[in-house]
Amino acid sequence: MKKVLQKSALRELTIRSLGVIDSAEVDFKDGLTVITGETGAGKTMVLTALNLILGSKSDADFVRSGDERLVVSGKFNIGDTLQTIVEEAGGFVEDGDVIINRSVTNQGKSKISLGGAVTTTSQVSELAQELVEIHAQSSSARLSKPAVQLNLLDSYGDYQDSAAKYSDKFIEFNLIRKRVADLTSQLKVRDFEIAKLTGFVDDFAKIAPKKGELDQIENEITKLGAVEELNAGLIQALGIISGEDESPTAALGLTKKILENLKGKDSELDSLIEKYSELIYEFAENSSDLERYLAGLGADPARFDYLQNRKSELNGLLKKYGEGSDRESAYENLLIAGDEASSRLEDLQGGDSKLAELRDESLACFGKLQELGLNLSASRFSVAKKLSTAITSEMVLLAMPNAKISVQVTTSDGSKPENFSATGLDEVLFLFTSHTDGKLLPLSKAASGGELSRVMLSIEVVLAKNSPVGTYIFDEVDAGVGGKAAIEVGKRLALLAQNSQVIVVTHLAQVASWADNHFVVSKNESGSVTQSNILEVSGADRRKEIARLLSGQEDSKTAQEHAGELLDMVAMSRSEMIG
Questions:
Q1: According to the model, what pLDDT value does residue 1 have?
Q2: SS (H, E, C) 53-98
Q3: What is the pLDDT of residue 68?
Q4: Which residues contact 67 (CB under 8 A, 6 or more apart)?
Q5: 29, 193, 447, 484: least surrounded by Cβ within 10 Å?
Q6: Is residue 152 within a helix (H) or strand (E), and if so which, with residue range?
Q7: How far apart are CA 219 and CA 167, in angstroms?
């Protein structure tokens, strides 16, 4: 059974001094959000900001001209699993929200923090894989990688338990193989190794070092060597504290008695008297502790000699067998080696019989691994056909009526251990053709940039219910399409937004008309973008923006009528899609 996924969502994006954007803050909601605006108005800077937040490479050229640094931050609402990852990295999560902050100076120096804790871009990038999926024509190229295609197929399939069992068995098999290889190697020099280990085991057992013992011995030696000095010093100190003539103890006791008589006259003074009384009590307790220590202090020449001899034994063992960069690590390594030595010696003394036992264990484990691997392959073959059909059906609706995807699973020979990998015996390849009877070829060879973007959109719509990713961001997904095909692209994005948050940068009215939330980015007279230049539009203002996208003339009555018709048509299609 699949687990219920807790999906993340982008809530806020703050931008300072990035490209043409001087200062802006955008609040994002669930559903489909579109960002439109005139060319050069800074729409893509929103994507640049997100890429920086999510750990992509920084560039000093991103910093707004004349400014010292850019600062971008994003607030994400995350589930329990991601919250644990953030907190283990030292970050802070408040009410399920985490803030990722990135700054870049005009000298190219970059700094990134996760939940308030300074971290690395690589660590944030790992987290980002389950936060946001960004698609532009350039980033869609990753879809061509076989490893990515295998992950996509596994995300669609309902065999996560089988994959997990296979992975566990693969790890177990490799551990046994390593033991076989190590023992085989050791048996070649068995006599030498047995003699070496026997000597070590005997010496270790004879001395029997304990964790922390060396430090404890040295501390006690230091103490016993200074008994007279400690005794004299404590007697002198306690004599001053508790002496008969004007001792601090007597003075403090008299002061306490006087102050106790003043209690009840003023609440503020009462609290001060209480604090003073507590300090006197602590002082008296510490004095008693010193007296008890003094009472138990005494010279012990026999103990001192024993400790010196014991220290010499431990240092001798450490000098002979210890390995490490310093004494502390060498001692720890010695204890670890002592714990392992007996079992290693037992393996070697067992000789060929022990090796035969391990090989039998390896064969049994490999048999189970083969069974799990072939079952996993069978599941992939079955799911590959379903995924091929589902993606092809989506592509037909995205202005590619003759396109076809075939998810090909190639399984290696299961009789050879070297053919097994951490993910199984299979290699997955997405084959594509854009026309009827066309030859199916790998995506990287057969799909154009625009086609690759729409293939990715088709895949995301199909996989969205099973994907942990909470936010999808698309740029140029509508490249090369228009008219009815563009409407279908918008519809597919709206369908994806039923399961995840979707943010789209577009220049097509047919796509923008499907938005649940619509932002317009514009430049002011100075050519920059500020907070007032990123506005959420609705009603008449949104209709004007749709009209501008349709004709470039937002004030045109005809364009606005066309925009109204488009919005009404989309609203009707939405109700049919939902109900």
A1: 40
A2: HCCCCCCHHHECCCCCEEEEEEEEECCHHHHHHHHHCCCCCECCEE
A3: 92
A4: 17, 106
A5: 484
A6: helix 146-156
A7: 49
